[in-house]
Design goal:
This protein is of the alpha+beta class. Helices cover 37% and strands 21% of the residues. Strand 2 and strand 3 form a beta hairpin. Helix 3 runs antiparallel to helix 4.
């Protein structure tokens, strides 16, 4: 507010201006918290991530409503000029868009709880250990479908969870967790892997040794909430020599040609 006052060089209604700025900041934090990307709400006191998982990082329903609310005043102005009617300010459309967001968010929260209940009601293999975490993340294109994640002691189970149908447990994918090898331990100390470990919500480690004279080792770390290994931008990889020394570590899908998928 002080910067705005200095730029416009006029007296501002300080109470209303500060209130408006506070609403802008609070709504921004609320929207970040509502997504599956998450936020660190308690920084600098705690670096823990918080998620509501109601919206996806790119929710096309929200984008469509925003575009409609933004374009409506221009279209209404063109029509008003054509017929000589009074111009619309667009305030009603803006209020309608905000009301829609509140109702849509509540609707998404109800569907989210239903998706979680479906995931928690299933039985998972006993040899994998107890269920540790369950999450349902919004599918970007289909507003009535969720990406379901179930973490057990030894594996991740990924499902497509419909909002108004029963979950098909046989249609999911299972990714087994990697043992903590010497290659994984060495890769975990590099900057890219430390950054991904800090950010990843469902971290999947994979390690493979190439059968060639160089005996090259490859380690990848993937956050499976954003896609499967090898088809995910939230992934890091490391190349290691025969003595488990890291030769190269970087962000992006690694050159792991074959993966243990069951």
């Amino acid at each position: 507010v002080l910067v705005t006052a200095a730029i416009v060089r006029k007296r501002l209604p300080w109470t209303n201006a500060c209130l408006l700025a506070s609403i802008g900041v609070a709504s921004h934090l609320l929207l970040d918290w509502s997504m599956s990307y998450g936020m660190r709400l308690l920084l600098p006191f705690s670096s823990a991530w918080s998620y509501l998982d109601i919206f996806s990082l790119t929710d096309w329903v929200v984008v469509a409503v925003l575009l409609a609310a933004w374009l409506w005043p221009f279209l209404a102005r063109l029509v008003s000029d054509e017929i000589g009617a009074r111009r619309s300010t667009g305030r009603g459309v803006a209020i309608a868009a905000l009301v829609f967001f509140v109702l849509y968010g509540g609707f998404r929260a109800v569907l989210h709880e239903r998706a979680i209940e479906q995931l928690e009601s299933r039985l998972y293999p006993e040899h994998e250990g107890l269920v540790q975490r369950v999450a349902a993340l919004k599918e970007s294109l289909n507003p009535f479908e969720w990406n379901g994640f179930v973490e057990t002691g030894d594996a991740y189970h990924l499902y497509q969870v419909p909002s108004f149908q029963n979950l098909d447990p046989g249609a999911g994918s299972t990714f087994y967790k990697q043992e903590w090898t010497a290659d994984v331990a060495a890769a975990s100390k590099t900057v890219p892997f430390q950054a991904m470990s800090y950010f990843a919500r469902f971290p999947l480690w994979q390690n493979q040794r190439a059968l060639d004279p160089t005996d090259t080792g490859v380690v990848t770390l993937t956050d499976v909430r954003f896609g499967q290994p090898g088809r995910n931008f939230f992934e890091v990889f490391a190349l290691l020599d025969a003595q488990h020394n890291v030769r190269h570590a970087d962000f992006g899908p690694g050159p792991l040609a074959t993966r243990d998928r069951r």
